[in-house]
Design brief:
The chain has about 230 residues and is an alpha+beta fold. It has seven helices and eight strands; from the N terminus they run βαββααββαββααβα.
Length: about 230
């Protein structure tokens, strides 16, 4: 299994069409599951400010051939073609999500030489909206200035709430996620464990291995790989 995240500025009308028509496994060969959403910058504000013209697609695939087929043949791929997408190899996961295999390792310590990616996914409980917004705002505020962060965004199409972030290393990602106990993200994790925010959720760490296109005139992973003398 591989995953991909696609982000593109498509305009408000096209964004509405994308939100209504997520790719389906029954009509998209090799697709295990897909979610579509609007994006929102991670700012630390309690109420997010979505970018109504920028959409995201989060997808799980059988393999690269399945993703290649989508990119060459699917109408949504054509809509998103002016943006950026990244291919992701899962390293570890906790929780569950449609399309996510149960055999992905759950260990915290993951060895990886190079950038890492993190994806959080949740189906938010209506009764937990206020708790979630307060906890996530503090965690998002902390990620913006976190050492080793390359780029990050929020994504939402209620009840789906998600974040996607790129990091210079797994050490930098782990320091943010599980560092000092009183820090914002560990506190949010503890709050989720005490009383879950979501009906279903998953937290997945990846090795990014393919990055194409650009957002806001740049491809952050290609820049990172180039500065490290790789890829």
């Amino acid at each position: 299994m591989i995953a991909s995240v696609h982000l593109s500025d498509v305009g408000v009308r096209s964004a509405l069409r994308v939100l209504r028509r997520a790719p389906r496994p029954t009509s998209t060969p090799g697709l295990r599951h897909a979610n579509v959403a609007l994006t929102a910058p991670l700012s630390g504000a309690v109420l997010p400010s979505p970018a109504f013209s920028r959409v995201g697609l989060i997808a799980f695939w059988d393999d690269d051939d399945a993703l290649d087929g989508f990119l060459s043949d699917h109408p949504m791929a054509a809509t998103l073609a002016g943006g950026w997408h990244v291919r992701l190899d899962p390293l570890r996961a906790s929780g569950s999500w449609p399309g996510l295999p149960s055999d992905v390792p759950t260990k915290h310590d993951v060895e990886l030489d190079g950038p890492a990616a993190a994806l959080t996914l949740g189906r938010l409980r209506v009764t937990q909206v206020v708790r979630f917004l307060r906890a996530s705002a503090k965690a998002e505020g902390a990620v913006v200035g976190a050492p080793g962060l390359i780029w990050a965004t929020g994504l939402a199409r209620p009840p789906l709430v998600s974040t996607f972030s790129l990091w210079q290393s797994t050490d930098a990602l782990s320091a943010y996620a599980y560092g000092q106990r009183e820090a914002a993200h560990p506190v949010a994790i503890a709050a989720q464990r005490r009383k879950p925010f979501h009906h279903e959720s998953a937290f997945i760490r990846f090795r990014p291995y393919g990055s194409e296109g650009s957002l806001d005139g740049r491809n952050p992973l290609v820049e990172t790989w180039a500065s490290a003398g790789g890829r």
